[in-house]
């Protein structure tokens, strides 16, 4: 059995294992700092294709290292999780779709290179950049002070952290503005995410407030997080703003979005000192200038998260 066949069978088995829980197509191998729309049939991918008209811009492509231009390809570790970021609208044996997919493809076209996309779980991508397994990574990676110690970022959107609960929840009914509102509750989130780091760093806030501490359950699969919420094993999900908004808009998911908690710049991720960052920054800014960027965000319903210009390694939002 060749590797391609084995991967296809493994993916198919993973999907079949989830079918008793819900009929869905938006389930991936990793966490895109968010959750999958478990319990709800994911919406079909929009049919418009703003990436089709993108052409190579020679002055931008010239910023790539000579060996990359000669090879004509870049390896990208891609976390395929849920819409609108990246998901499988037609099953894991078909091409993924989403905002992150379109933006990466558009950048590659500006740079005149092909992408060799490799699916990977969210928490494995950043460590793999240093080893050279991937040239860059995508997965709604938020720019944080801790990550900036070892990773370079080229920003392409402003997303961030939010919360959602099961519809009808009586513990939390309003926007979460302080983690003390979560004291005594069980929070589900993704492995290796900024959410996990935030909850760990602030774990003492409830004791200081004289309250029972919150409990955190970490999941490697998007499907497991929402299933845990639906089954009452967790009280609240902490994940991306755009992802939770999308999820709450799917009636069958039975979730309620509790608003924005903390905004973060999101970017393509590279090993520290990568020679690719200036070319990627210029490519994103070219897409912003020619209107392709706005069309991609409009396609995926994320226009409120647009940035005015791409930056390399901006400081974390405070």
Entry keywords:
globular; 32% helix; 318 residues; 8-stranded mixed beta sheet; disordered N terminus; alpha/beta
Summarize this, please?
This protein is an alpha/beta fold and 318 residues long.
What do you see in this structure?
Helix 4 packs antiparallel against helix 11. It is built from 11 helices and 8 strands. The chain is globular and about 60 Å long. Strand 1, helix 4 and strand 2 form a beta-alpha-beta unit. The protein is α/β, with parallel strands linked by helices. 32% of the residues lie in helices and 21% in strands.
Structural class call reads alpha/beta
Major sheet: arrangement of strands: 2-1-3-8-4-7-5-6
**N-C termini distance:** 51 Å
Taken in chain order, the helices and strands follow as HHHEHEHEEEHHEHEHEHH
Overall 3D shape: globular
The share of residues in helices is 25-40%
The major sheet is characterized as: 8 strands, mixed
Mean pLDDT: 86
Number of strands: 8
Unreliable stretches? 1-41
Figure out the total of helices.
Answer: 11
Strand content: 15-25%
Question: How are the SSEs placed, and which strands pair?
Answer:
Elements: H1 3-18, H2 58-61, H3 66-71, E1 73-78, H4 99-111, E2 114-119, H5 122-131, E3 136-142, E4 151-166, E5 186-190, H6 194-201, H7 205-208, E6 215-219, H8 222-230, E7 236-240, H9 241-248, E8 255-271, H10 277-290, H11 292-300
Parallel strand pairs: 1-2, 1-3, 5-6, 5-7
Antiparallel strand pairs: 3-8, 4-7, 4-8
Helix pairs in contact: 4-10, 4-11
